[in-house]
UniProtKB/TrEMBL annotation:
The gene is hypE. It holds the Pfam family AIRS_C. Signal peptide: none annotated. It comes from the Bacteria. InterPro entries: HypE, PurM-like_C_dom, PurM-like_C_sf, PurM-like_N, PurM-like_N_sf. This is Hydrogenase expression/formation protein HypE. CDD domains: HypE. Residues 38-149 form the PurM-like N-terminal domain. It comes from Pelotalea chapellei.
């Protein structure tokens, strides 16, 4: 293998992505420490703090059950701001469109973006459009950047997990990744698996009522729950232990993963968050989630057990202990 070449796996959100960031991109551009590598940057300014984030969307196919590339882009940027505890306010949209793309399909995508922004309470305030020759892109790519503001003094950060903390997810795992895979490959599943794409800032507003008991928020998108928890474990210098029996999974998602040999912990989500909270607040947070439309299937799935170099383990349903690591390589390409 030529180690000088970029591979699809470098865009997976897993181990290869982290290697590319750590060895080339971050040292070249900013030198930001591991502790500061969160879903959005928090920037201090004269009147307080703001959160800033950016992301690009290249999902294939661009239309799938439960959404399309447009609402996916808006929701993803809203969620990255919300995971820092910020209130999302403003978004930019950059469109890269391939020559020959349908104006009717573009109209559907733009309508979905506007609807998603309105539902999330954010404004699309600026943007850019480029058209490239046919065959030089794949229909349409979208970049969104976002700004969020803080109305509190809480510091929610991936390096804030502590021994004893409980880990809570707001719903079923792997829905988006399996939805996109099934649509792209034309799998006949005898049932429809819909993407979970959703803006989570309303749910986060409820969770912020727990104050300093809320330590970490993160949305497990590319690389899935496993990769996200590994990132947090390394940032915080702790060991995280999951309970396999407590992982919420739709039967259809579980079945597809079993047939195709996929680990649902490595499958992408687009409307899920992981909350790491003080143990005394766990049941209250779980109740807040279950009382919100985006959290009806919420579950406590594990805990932070000890200080360490950063490890994730899972107690299996048969009583064994399995090491959990970041996604290696490219499991499901082009899922966001």
């Amino acid at each position: 293998m030529d180690h000088d070449l970029i591979l699809l796996g470098h865009g997976s959100g897993g181990r290869l992505s982290h290697q590319l960031l750590d060895e080339l991109i971050i040292p070249s551009l900013s030198g930001i420490s591991v502790a500061g590598q969160n879903d959005a940057a928090v920037i201090a300014h004269d009147s307080g703090r703001l959160a800033f984030t950016t992301d690009s969307y290249v999902v294939d196919p661009i239309f799938f059950p439960g959404g399309n590339i447009g609402d996916l882009a808006v929701n993803g940027t809203v969620n990255d701001l919300a995971m820092m505890g910020a209130t999302p306010r403003y978004i930019s949209v950059g469109l890269i469109i391939e020559e020959g793309f349908s104006k009717k399909e573009l109209a559907v995508i733009l309508s979905a973006m506007r609807e998603a922004a309105d539902l999330a309470g954010v404004q699309i305030v600026t943007g850019d459009t480029k058209v490239v020759p046919k065959g030089k892109a794949d229909r349409i790519f979208i970049n969104t950047s976002g700004i969020g503001l803080f109305d509190h003094d809480l510091r929610i950060n991936g390096c804030a997990a502590r021994p004893g903390d409980k880990i809570i997810i707001n719903g079923t795992i792997g829905d988006h990744g399996i939805c996109v895979l099934a649509t792209r490959e034309g799998l006949d599943l005898q049932t429809v698996i819909e993407s979970d794409t959703a803006a989570l800032n309303g749910l986060v507003t409820e969770l912020l009522k727990e104050g300093e008991a809320l330590h970490v928020l993160r949305d497990p998108t590319r690389g899935g729950v496993a990769t996200t928890l590994k990132e947090i474990a390394v940032q915080s210098g702790v060991t995280i232990k999951l309970q396999e029996a407590d992982l919420p999974l739709k039967d259809a998602v579980k079945g597809v993963c079993a047939i195709l040999g996929l680990d649902p912990l490595h499958v992408a989500n687009e409307g899920k968050l992981l909350a790491i909270v003080a143990p005394e607040a766990a049941e209250r947070v779980l109740e807040r989630m279950r009382n919100h439309p985006c959290g009806v299937d919420a579950a406590i799935i594990g805990e932070v057990t000890q200080v360490s170099a950063g490890a994730v383990q899972m107690e299996t349903t048969i009583g064994g202990l399995r090491a959990i690591d970041m996604l290696s390589g490219e499991q499901l390409p082009r899922i966001c």
